[in-house]
Design goal:
- The protein is built from eight helices and 18 strands.
- By secondary structure, the protein is of the alpha+beta class.
- It has a single domain, classed as 4-Layer Sandwich (Anthranilate synthase).
- Strands 1, 2, 9, 10, 11, 12, 13, 15 and 16 form a nine-stranded antiparallel β-sheet that branches. Strands 3, 4, 5, 6, 7, 8, 14, 17 and 18 form a nine-stranded antiparallel β-sheet that branches.
- A hairpin with a 2-residue loop joins strand 17 and strand 18.
């Protein structure tokens, strides 16, 4: 039995028993782990105020962060490949990402304890993630998703108006909303866009960012708890971090990026026996052979500008720790 099938069956069984668990699933949906919510030996997590560990009160200090982003010329090779597929009609939105080696005086555990985010996950000796993006939430049979697509430096004059009136950002966000609506329709009925394009401000150690989100909801069947693994896996990978159409776009991603995303852009979640909260694993630092690598990117459409997309990738390399 494949890991995916095994984890899905375990999640369904736990849901049927009304037992709580937490889980991490990688981008490919082929590597995944399930944990008891109270386990702290291998995983630390926080989701909208819920956590398996009390904050240790460690002193926050200025972040020393040196990054070595991919060169623009290197970035553009993959970008041009993506654009060639877009112009052939193979994809019309693709989330193109690249790794950025970084150096900091903080360990993964330091970053977990000192960072501020809606969701935080530390898979010990593997990665730390401080994600602002919800994957799905389930409350009493109602499933909701809040795709984030569109980022702008908040220090730019009139940034709010600029990002909300940008035709490229509107097209990209509309595509993702349509994709997520279709994904929810695979598992739910009465799928509705409750709120279209609203702004949230994210604070980073380098700058404040405006992020654009939408809210989409649907109704799950009465037996959803005993099918919780099936429901989650059916919607993977998360539409906001691959693109559309999903299957072909994922094939192009592998060709263009030429590196292993691993758990980056996968999902983390916790289930309390009836309700579920989960996030997309973005804003993510991975340990590789004793060194740290930050993975980031953004959505590419036919209206994209290579330099602007490259700059966005670099701007997303941050740690949300404040003095």
């Amino acid at each position: 039995m494949k890991v995916r099938e095994k984890i899905e069956a375990q999640m369904n069984a736990l849901g049927r028993q009304g037992r709580a668990f937490v889980f991490v699933i990688d981008f490919e949906g082929e590597n995944a782990e399930i944990f008891d919510p109270g386990e702290t030996d291998r995983i630390l997590w926080q989701a909208n105020g819920k956590s398996n560990v009390v904050l240790n009160g460690s002193e926050r200090k200025p972040v020393q962060l040196d990054i070595e982003p991919i060169s623009f010329d290197q970035y553009k090779k993959g970008y041009d490949l993506v654009q060639s597929h877009i112009h052939k009609g193979d994809t019309y939105l693709l989330n193109y990402t690249q790794p950025t080696p970084l150096k900091t005086d903080l360990s993964l555990q330091d970053i977990y304890h000192q960072s501020s985010a809606r969701y935080k996950v530390l898979l010990k000796d593997k990665f730390v993630c401080f994600s602002p993006e919800i994957f799905v939430q389930i409350n009493d049979g109602k499933i909701s998703s809040f795709p984030m697509k569109g980022t702008m430096d908040a220090s730019i004059p009139n940034a709010e108006e600029l990002i909300m009136s940008d035709s490229k950002e509107l097209a990209e966000h509309s595509t993702i909303v349509d994709l997520i609506r279709n994904d929810l329709s695979l598992v739910a009925t009465n799928v509705t866009v409750e709120k279209f394009r609203y702004l949230e401000k994210l604070q980073t150690n380098r700058r404040a960012l405006w992020q654009v989100s939408s809210e989409i909801t649907g109704n799950l069947p009465p037996d959803y708890a005993e099918r919780i693994g099936e429901i989650i896996f059916k919607m993977l990978p998360a539409g906001s971090i691959c693109g559309a159409p999903k299957k072909k776009t994922v094939e192009i991603i592998k060709e263009a990026e030429n590196y292993d995303r691993g758990y980056y852009t996968g999902i983390f979640g916790w289930f309390d026996g009836r309700n579920l909260d989960s996030c997309v694993l973005i804003r993510y630092i991975e340990k590789q052979d004793g060194k740290l690598v930050y993975k980031s990117g953004g959505g590419i459409t036919f209206m994209s500008d290579a330099k602007s997309e490259y700059d966005e990738l670099v701007k997303k390399v941050y740690i949300p720790i404040f003095e």
